[in-house]
Design brief:
11-stranded antiparallel beta sheet; 34% strand; globular
Length: 212
């Protein structure tokens, strides 16, 4: 008889404990779903300022190039330079950079949850990947709404070493966005090149970049 009474008391206690825990159960249900993609105000402002030009293309000019002193045609050989804010999502911007007829380069800016990442998608004309593709870097600080810096990441440094261009491991890419100007800049010791694009004068969008 004592054993039966003890069993019944255990059943009642278990039922009471279960009835007292609906809030915890509801909380676990409401927590289901993907984790949020977090960001900070300066990164959001920078990203959104570029995204505001989605679908538009702009012509650019070289404003700084320390190789021009050695080679009058400079880094891009005097070719027409065009950037196209071609595709935008809540977390990525795809910006092809056309150098004359060369449509091999696409800049990709991505919100990672730890900051912003810049990658260079480099393709051959048939759309296949160039051996030196997806190099770039990641922000390491808040930066500014108008300017973000992307020091070369570990993948890029290893790529540069294996490609025999070790000077590039110190690369820092910068992108600037102002009301009337978008600038792309590469700096490292003894090297600087910057292209400025006039946002006040959109031009006809170019064809898709290679591979897209």
């Amino acid at each position: 008889m004592k054993n039966i009474l003890f069993f019944l008391l255990c059943v009642v206690a278990t039922k009471l404990h279960a009835d007292s825990a609906p809030a915890a159960s509801q909380k676990s249900v409401s927590a289901k779903g993907p984790a949020p993609l977090v960001s900070i105000p300066t990164h959001d402002a920078f990203f959104n300022a570029i995204a505001a030009h989605c679908g538009k293309a702009f012509e650019g000019k070289v404003s700084k190039d320390n190789l021009a002193a050695q080679n009058q045609s400079g880094t891009f050989g005097g070719a027409k330079l065009v950037m196209h804010v071609r595709e935008c999502t809540d977390s990525q911007l795809f910006i092809p950079f056309h150098v004359g007829d060369d449509a091999s380069r696409t800049w990709i800016i991505t919100k990672t949850g730890a900051g912003l990442m810049l990658k260079h998608d480099h393709r051959h004309e048939d759309g296949s990947y160039h051996k030196s593709t997806m190099y770039g870097g990641h922000t390491i600080d808040a930066g500014y709404a108008e300017l973000q810096s992307f020091p070369a990441d570990a993948y890029s440094k290893q790529l540069f070493i294996s490609s025999g261009i070790t000077a590039s491991i110190d690369n820092v890419w910068q992108i600037m966005i102002y009301p009337n100007r978008f600038s792309y800049r590469l700096i490292r010791p003894a090297r600087e090149v910057q292209v400025d694009f006039d946002l006040s004068a959109p031009i006809a969008a170019p064809d898709a970049p290679w591979g897209y």
